[in-house]
Design brief:
This protein is of the alpha+beta class. It contains 18 helices and 22 strands. Helix 5 packs parallel to helix 16, helix 13 packs parallel to helix 14 and helix 15 packs across helix 16.
């Protein structure tokens, strides 16, 4: 017989009855039923009920066991007594009558329980992550993550992609976030950077003649943490293709992403034919470039109905050309209590309030706005929004560039409060035609809006003849249920266009050569048209596991202060290590 086990704790079935078996695992739960001890023994594969009564030779040993002790149990498989089967457990028809117990690893008093899924303070969970990972839900999430990554790999290979590994130690580059820097011992005063993404390397692979690249790539960004963004590191399905248009990339990646979602959606519907939503339309209708399409609300510009109206606040605003009034329909929200609640919520968001109109039986509009603009304009707004008696509409006004984010939040709030969001589906879409540039108010200059390596629509002609803020890029995102889960673009592969694109954003030609010398040189020697994307593995897993926090799908995450409480990182290093790196600390006094 094997030293530790003949079967795993998830293996025993009716066919094993009367066999003598050996199991090893953790004491998940110990129950005393009138002198009969039931020990639920758990390992990675499942759970088996083991029983010791006073006639068992191992009864005295069983009495000493505590939660999470690691034990070896020998015994005989028997059918559970009538009425005690557990149909929710694969081993639920049988139990093991214990004949011998060996304690392999006793456990001290637990800082958090493993049995059950009760909430526990995050700092305790992260400090004792090895215990937290034993809990059923988190353990299953991690296994689901591995299965999702396997599915991605399989589907990419079926599409003709080959997996490559790119360097982890590289040069610093302006990808949009702070780099993690690694000091060089051999080259004093110089630093490597951990890659924010394999962007340049995957483009160089296309220059090198490899046609279809992918990688489950670790990426490192020194960013402040959020629930949907882990501090430090994350993983992405990184993709690049040669001799492709935007449509080719969509055709290659839609089946991969749809297939992964369908495989792990547990029966929830997944979008079959993805809509392609221009960035400007997405901002206009949904107030965000990552719309949650499960929410049916679409905002509309209703400026014409307020221009010259009796509602002077909006009428005066509309005298300025750039200002608009947007309406957020609220089907079923036509009660005073709900409208007042939305108004209070808006004030909590730092707004002066949220104007509204309610429609009563007979189609009559009610509320301060309706009273000010009159029944004719109120009816025109109702008709334009397709609303009926019992519905409401909420209004935001001013410069859309300034209020669009709040409008998007209000749309989300209305949809959730009125239970309009169908949460049992995965709504996927492409958002396309992102602006190439944006105006940076802090630095008072034109800056890249998205990926600096994207091809502008119109190419060199657009860069030389158009207002930069009107140039669109061959840049696209995949969105799902209000999250951006992938981003990509067709690349700017002509060196003169690359230099011009960076010049518009304030980089001189020499600076482009200095910072992107490898890619700039590669473009001089026959660069194929190419493009790609990167999908966030962590966010996809988070969505498919039904959680809203990336810590619930990651093995050893950091806390909100970017600290690894289990391993004690970041930590101080010795003076000897600093001397070897030619580094002297200059810390501010506390």
């Amino acid at each position: 017989m094997h030293r530790y086990r003949t079967h795993t704790c998830g293996a025993l079935r009716d066919s094993d009855i009367d066999q003598t078996v050996r199991l090893s695992g953790w004491c998940h739960r110990i129950r005393d039923h009138g002198g009969v001890l039931f020990i639920d023994l758990r390992d990675h594969y499942g759970l088996t009920q083991c029983v010791a009564d006073p006639d068992s030779p191992a009864f005295k040993d069983a009495e000493k066991l505590r939660s999470e002790w690691v034990v070896r149990i020998d015994g005989k498989v028997r059918r559970r007594p009538d009425g005690t089967d557990n149909p929710d457990l694969p081993t639920g028809a049988v139990e093991v009558f214990i004949t011998e117990i060996e304690v392999l690893g006793p456990a001290g008093e637990l800082p958090l329980p493993v049995f059950g899924e009760q909430d526990y303070p995050e700092d305790v969970r992260l400090r004792y992550r090895f215990l937290d990972l034993r809990r059923e839900k988190l353990h299953q999430n991690i296994m689901t993550r591995g299965a999702i990554v396997d599915s991605m790999r399989r589907r990419m290979k079926e599409q003709g992609f080959f997996e490559f590994q790119t360097p982890i130690l590289t040069a610093s580059s302006p990808e949009g976030a702070r780099d993690f820097l690694v000091p060089s011992r051999i080259h004093p005063g110089k630093f490597y950077a951990l890659p924010q993404a394999p962007q340049q390397y995957k483009q160089l692979l296309m220059m090198s003649g490899f046609d279809r690249y992918f990688q489950i790539a670790p990426c490192f960004r020194d960013e402040d943490p959020r629930a949907d963004r882990l501090p430090g590191e994350f993983y992405q399905l990184d993709v690049e293709m040669s001799f492709v248009t935007q449509d080719d990339i969509f055709a290659a990646m839609e089946p991969v992403v749809t297939g992964v979602f369908e495989e792990f959606a547990k029966g929830k519907p997944v979008t079959k034919s993805w809509p392609r939503i221009p960035y400007a339309e997405s901002m206009r209708k949904y107030g965000t470039d990552k719309p949650d399409l499960r929410n049916p609300i679409e905002m509309q510009d209703v400026s014409e109905h307020f221009r010259g109206s009796g509602f002077k606040v909006f009428a005066r605003m509309l005298e300025e050309e750039r200002n608009q009034v947007w309406a957020i329909p609220g089907p079923g929200g036509g009660s005073r209590a709900f409208c007042d609640r939305m108004n209070s919520w808006a004030q909590g968001e730092g707004q002066p309030g949220l104007g509204y109109i309610m429609w009563r039986e007979g189609g009559e509009g009610a509320g301060p706005l309706a009273n000010n603009i009159g029944p004719e304009r109120t009816e025109a707004i109702r008709a334009a929004l397709g609303l009926k008696a019992g519905d409401a509409a909420f209004f935001v006004a001013g410069d859309p560039a300034k209020f669009v984010k709040f409008a998007g939040l209000a749309r989300t709030r209305v949809g959730e409060e009125l239970n309009l969001v169908d949460k049992d589906q995965f709504a996927l879409a492409w958002v396309v035609d992102f602006p190439m540039y944006e105006y940076n108010e802090d630095d008072k200059k034109v800056d890249f809006s998205h990926n600096p390596f994207s091809m502008p629509q119109g190419g060199m002609d657009a860069l030389t003849s158009q207002d930069p803020l009107t140039i669109k890029a061959f840049q696209y995102d995949i969105t799902c249920n209000g999250y951006e889960i992938a981003s990509g673009g067709i690349r700017n592969h002509r060196p003169e266009a690359m230099v011009k694109a960076f010049e518009i954003a304030g980089y001189g030609e020499q600076e482009v050569i200095d910072r992107f010398g490898g890619m700039y040189r590669a473009f001089q020697y026959g660069a194929p048209p190419h493009g790609g994307m990167a999908a966030g593995v962590d966010r996809i897993v988070m969505l498919l596991c039904g959680t809203t926090n990336l810590r619930e799908i990651s093995l050893f995450p950091m806390n909100q202060r970017a600290e690894d409480l289990l391993m004690g990182a970041p930590s101080q290093v010795t003076p000897k290590q600093l001397r070897e790196l030619h580094i002297r600390l200059n810390l501010q006094e506390e």
